[in-house]
Every structure is written in structure tokens, then in C-alpha cells.
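hey so i finally got around to running the thing on that chain from the lab meeting. sorry it took forever, my laptop kept dying and i had to restart like 3 times. anyway pasting the input first so we r on the same page abt which one it is
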Amino acid sequence: MSEQKDKKEEKKVEEKLEKASEEAKEEVKEEIEKHEEVSEEEEAKLKLPFPTAAVVRIMKANMDNEKMIKRDVKVEMNKWLGGMCAQVSKEMNKFPYVMMHLNELKEAKRVYEDLENFQKEKDRILAHFEAIKKDIERLERDLGVEEGDVIIVKKKEEAEAPQA
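ok and heres what got predicted. didnt touch it at all, straight out
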């Protein structure tokens, strides 16, 4: 009886420790993030194009909860996004229109979206290529061709033509 009681109490203590350690981890994580935050004064000094909090919020929304982001990463991401915005704006500036519409934005950012589509298309082609290679291997096995042998396929017309 006392053994069971001891085990229950041990389990309760372990649960409390585990809960306390999780809370401590969260506190440490929050403390680190506070030190890593870019203050408004620093932001002004660095001349960042966007509010750092907005950039970090987007980054965290797309990362695992346990991930932490160093200050230099936040600043660099902010600068990079500003550069991307500038490049797209320069592309939009090439249009002869005074008023920019959504169509001009879509046209200007197409280059970057096409890169994404290019990678998808590349993956699709590679998968198709692998399927073709497997078909060739299967056909070689069916025909009994060994490695190094060359299969010569004559055109149907040449095969049917009388030989002189």
C-alpha cells in the first residue's frame, strides 16, 4: 500500500517538475526574445523598411513553435524584403502608365513567381524522366538485352524493302 502511495506521490512530483520545467523554458525563451527584439530606436537607426514585429509575426506563423529567431536574422529578413519590394517597384516603373493597377504589380512580380513554377515543372519533368528510365529497363528485361548490348531498330520501310 505504501509503495503505491509513494509511486503516486513520485508521479505527482515528476509531473510538477515537468510542468515547472516547461514554464521555465517558456520564460527563458521569452526573455531571450526580449533581448533579441529590435527596439524602435534601433529600427530607426538601421533604417529598416518595415516594422520588425510584422516581419517576425509572418516568420513565426510559418515556423515551428520551438524555433527562435536571432536579431540579425530579423534585421536581414527585413532588409531583404525591402530590397524585393524595391526591385518589383522598379519593374512596375517601366510601365508607361501614371496609375499602377493590380495588373502591373502581377506582371512585375511574375519573374519571382515563375521561379517557383519553374522548380515545380523541373520536379515534374524529373519524375517523368525516372518513369521513362524504368520503362526502358523493363523493356530491356523483356527483350533479354544485357548491359552493353546495342539494340538497332530499323525503320519499318527499310525492313520491308527488298535487299539487293
